[in-house]
Each structure stands twice: as C-alpha cells, then as structure tokens.
# Entry
Amino acid sequence: MPTLRAFFILTIFLLVTLVSMFWQKFLLRFKLKQRKTFPNRFHRFLCKLFGIRITVIGKPIRDRGVLMVGNHASYLDILIISAIARVSFVGRSDVADWPLFGTMARLQETVFIMRSKRSGAGESRDIIRERLREGDALVLFPEGTTTDGNRVIAFKSSLMGAVEVEMGTDKAGVVRTVPVQPFSIAYVGMHGMPLGREDRPFYAWYGDMELLPHLWEGLKAGPLDVVVEFHPPIADGMSGRKKIAALAEETVRSGLRRALSGGRSATAANESGAEKGDVAQSPV
# Structure
C-alpha cells in the first residue's frame, strides 16, 4: 500500500507540474501579475497532495520587500514556505542546472548566487536589491546547507550581504535598510503521531543522501505535520550583517526548539498570518 500511494502521488505530481510549468512560463513571458501568485497556489496543491499539514504561527511581511531567513532541513522547505506566502528564493547557482527542480526554481524567479566568485556575488547582490525594492519577498537559508532538522547551525553572514543594501530614506531622512524576518520550520509529526529523532531522516535531506531515492522513501512514509513560525522582523536600524545574522540565528534556533518540544499552543497557531485560502492550519 505505501508503494502504491507513493506511485499515485508521484504520477499526479509529474503531470500537474509539467502543465504548471508551461503556464508559469507563459505568465513570466508576458509579465502578468499572476506570475507572483500562481506558485503560491501550485505549492498549496502540492502540500495537500503530499499530505503535508502546516501549522502557521505569526505573520509573514507582505506589504513591502523583505528578506526572510530561516533554517533548512529539506527540499520540502521550498514547498512549505511557498504554500504559505508569495515568495521567491535565493539559491546556489548550481541548482539552476538540476533536472526538473532547476527549471521549477527558475520559473519561481529564484535569484541564483555564485559563492565562489566575488564578481558573481556582487551581481547577485544588485539583483536582490532591485527585487527587494520592487516589493518582492525573498527567502534565504543562511546555514548554506541542509541539516537533520533537529538543530540550527551557524548562519553564514557572508550570504546576508543584502541586509546592508539601502532601501531609500523615510520622510525624516533616515536611511531605510532591508527588513529581515526570521522564520523557523519544524517537522514535528508523521501520521498524526510525534516525529521522533530516528524518523526525521525520512524528510530531512542532508549529508550524502541521494535526492530521488530519498524523495521516494518520503512519499512512502506518509502524511507529515509541520510547524512554521514567522518571528517579528529584526528592528529596523540595526546595522552590520554579522550582528543581524547572529540575532536571526538565535531567533530561529529558539523557534525550532519550541516547536520540537511542543511549546506553542493551538491558540497561537490559529493566529496564523497565512494567505487566505492557504494550507489549512491544524494545531500539532
């Protein structure tokens, strides 16, 4: 039965994804407004298809450009954050060459950064700055890699150069910087039961795990419960990417610990800021 379920889900995923890719390509070519909203609806569908139930705590910033930073345990993080908010991502340049997933990333207007070349990093920073000024929400995983989902490793401040970009001045003439909003993703349940440390590798993708075999085992494993907490944005006016990275890291780590220990209530979860019509909020 798990194998049959996984085969059914994978077949629907491939069919819907291929059709959606052509549609999103059309929206991007003609720069239609739906190019920003369609990925959100597409990923909501995928979360329902995969049986991912999301509890959202807090509210993502929506009224201005924002750099969202959080922990990274799995490729499922992309689906989950995209299902909650209208976002694009900042990712490694080599991801653009991945079969299927690279195409999906490009169609979601991912900003690809080249970490090995200073010139490439400067160009990426300029692109990020313009996207933020245009009001886009960009998601960055400053750990620089995925983990086992039980911890948060050090945020690399070198990946957060965009926080030092000036966004103009306010009415008082004070320079505005990029707003930074930390978020925490915690994988907390499977089949409605608490997810133990030994089961987390079914969904956390890290180390030398191969992508396709890991995805197949995850599909066979069954429904998943996830808690996403959007933390208050870091106070405007704080300067220095190292200070901001350190504060964001500790904030995300605290949120992950709370979620894994079951420390957030159903009441808090129901105060979610998810887009109307997004994945149903189910207290974990």
Observations:
- The helical segments are 2-29, 34-50, 76-84, 101-107, 118-133, 211-221, 241-260, 266-269.
- The two ends are 26 Å apart (CA to CA).
- The CA atoms of residues 95 and 102 lie 5 Å apart.
